[in-house]
Amino acid sequence: MSEKFDVTVIGGGPGGYVCAIRLSQLGLKTACIESRSTLGGTCLNIGCIPSKSLLNLSENFHKAKNFNKIGIETGEIKLNLSKMMENKDKTVTTLTKGIEFLFKKNKISYFKGIGSFKGSNEISIVKDGKETTIITGKTIVSTGSEPVSLPGIDFDEEKILSSTGALSISSVPKKMIVVGGGYIGLEMGSVWSRLGTEVQVVEFLGHITPGMDKEISNEFMKILKKQGIKFELNTKVEKITKKNNGVIIEISNKNGEKNKLEADVVLISVGRKPFTSNLNLENIGVELDKKGRVKVNKNFETNIKNIYAIGDVIEGPMLAHKAEEEGIAVAELIAGQSGHVNYEVIPGVIYTSPEVASVGKTEEQLKEKGTSYKIGKFPFAANSRAKAINDSEGFVKILADSVTDIVLGVHIIGPHAGEMIAEMSVAMEFGASSEDIARTCHAHPTFSEAIKEAALSVDKRQIHS
Question: Which helix (H) or strand (E) element contains residue 348?
């Protein structure tokens, strides 16, 4: 007889494993199926976590090379890339084992293998050619996403890299071409640039980081240029050819001018697509949209009763924390509670140096909607903590409704922006005005004082600039 569960989660990434834990906390007999040998999904295994490890280690290496400038005298600074990669892998292993511990603690049945629908309440799990079948009352699809390549170009993860291959290069390449000026490409480009690689970014649009507030995006590119990263904007990749010692990238700009770039490796970072193959969704009639995403209603339920979907496989930003929020919300809805995700307050962070973070609306979005708004800005160059530690590039930008003063969007480029954005996410969740932020005492000296000053600047009463 097949084992029976109240709920089964297919996919053990950030959305799936968090959802499974919450379901179990709510008293439901829960199973989670994961095709990888470890839990944590793309984010933990080959995405967010290993990339942040390398970003941190490469930044430390870059800083160490410049210690003499600030009075710290050392011997020759050398890069041991294999040790750096070992450190990254150790971090990933520790965290994946941590999730397994949480599954045991919460009495979640963990199945390794490829899960697919035999019927709306029957799930097949195939591992090493052996099939197990379980019966489930409800199922949540949380299988994440995978990298998209360019038409006719396949990843080999040696010369033509996805983000996965870029995390495991065995030696520092002399030159890397990054196709796509989004979050992932710029983070990985920054890693290898700090380690000594010449990095050139090719972007189809006329600006980097599509969807970001343009003023922040422009400042970001200026800073990255100062760090040595080169940019080719309004440029299309026509063809990529492998050769013995690298790749040739044929490009054309908006004026029709053609050129060839040569590099040791090319990182293709042009987006991701939902990973729904092998699920047999078509067998049970689950509807997908034109982009291959699973269609769901406001309660994350598909057109098939008792089958739900969350995370990268549905509409919305492909962010781990968005998936986690949806995982908790759908678990609570299934348990009869009032699960909810506020999509207006989902922060985004780019973990370069300086970091870039945002939450809420951009100035361009407010203009498009015809919303009347005020702007408050404050530079880190006028922040005492930032100046004290020689990390003063960037600024804080707050957008507030010109009538109600409610904060509509916050955009930060500067030190610890990814941590500082949380303050404004909480503020926006509670409907704060810029005046509320301006009248809140911030410790001195801290980076977060720049937020207070930007809030004061909304009404042109900042103190330190």
Answer: strand 348-350
Tokens of 85: 């990669």
Which percentage of the chain shows pLDDT scores above 90?
98
- C-beta contacts of 181-184 below 8 A and 24+ residues apart: 181/205, 181/207, 181/208, 181/209, 181/210, 181/231, 181/233, 182/208, 182/209, 182/210, 182/269, 182/270, 182/271, 183/209, 183/348, 183/350, 184/51, 184/269
Q: pTM (2 decimals)?
A: 0.96
Given a cut of 90, is residue 356 above it in pLDDT?
yes
d(CA 274, CA 294): 8
pLDDT by residue (tens digit) across 40-49?
999 999 999 9
Q: Is residue 342 part of a domain?
A: no
**Whether 246 and 208 share a structural domain:** yes
Q: How far is it, in rounded angstroms, from Cα 301 to Cα 313?
A: 13
Catalytic sites, residue numbers: 444
Buried b (16+ CB within 10 A) or exposed e, 332-367: bbbbeeebebeeebbbbbbbbbbbbbbbbbbbeebe
Q: What's the total number of domains in the chain?
A: 3
Looking at 307-381, list the stretches that DSSP marks H as alpha helix, in order from N- to C-terminal side: 320-334, 363-369
From residue 165, give the alpha-carbon distance in Å to each of 143, 169, 388.
Answer: 20, 7, 38
pLDDT tens for each residue of 101-149? 999 999 999 999 999 999 999 999 999 999 999 999 999 999 999 999 9
Distance CA 160, CA 437 (A): 47
Residues 6 or more apart in contact with residue 24 via CB below 8 angstroms: 30, 106, 107, 108
3-class state of residue 456 by DSSP:
helix
Spatial separation of the C-alpha atoms in residues 207 and 214, rounded to whole Å:
8
Residue 1 has pLDDT above 80, yes or no: no
CA atoms of 157 and 155, how far apart (whole Å): 6
Is residue 165 domain-shared with residue 125, that is, in the same domain?
A: no
Backbone angles phi, psi at 14, to 5 degrees: -55, -45
Non-local (6+) Cβ contacts of 179 within 8 A are: 150, 185, 202, 237, 249, 266, 267, 268, 269, 270
Q: Do residues 132 and 40 both lie within one domain?
A: yes
Is residue 7 domain-shared with residue 140, that is, in the same domain? yes
